[in-house]
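so im writing up the methods section and need the ImpA N-terminal domain-containing protein record in one place, dumping it here so i stop losing it
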Amino acid sequence: MSEHPENLIIRAGGNPMNLPAFTAIREEINKINHPSQPAVNWPLIESLALTLFRTHGVDLQSAIYYTLARMQLSGLAGFTEGCELLAGVIVSQWDELWPPQPAVRTDMLDWFNTRSGNALRQHDYTPRDLRMIYRAERALQLIVDRLQQSDLKRLPKVENLLWFFQNTAKKLEQAR
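--- predicted struct ---
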């Protein structure tokens, strides 16, 4: 990855649907559910998302796709980096974040919870992962806290990811 998200100025972006970079990201993401299961180009998703963030700003859907790409490419560390980006934009720019519709935001975050949760639960964690688990837990706690303060009629199940990491940390701490 040539550019790290920590080198970007994070600002909320508008609707990316008509942007070529977002269209290309969606084409790759749609491969996940394709019957022939073609390979998803995760490095392309990561690169295009960073381009979108730099030129258009960060929207919720692109940030979720970026986080999934980082997780696929770098495992727990990538997931954690993506969650920290999500936490930053959700906590500081929730009111400006695209999409504005609460139900759509909830659906996106539930989709993220399911996709990332399934992959994360297949990983074998060791005490060496604790530092990264604590970082992911902190980012998820920030997200959950902000969502609980929002006007969402139904809260996304992001809390499930938080509980998973809290329980994983407890098990690893006891195994030391």
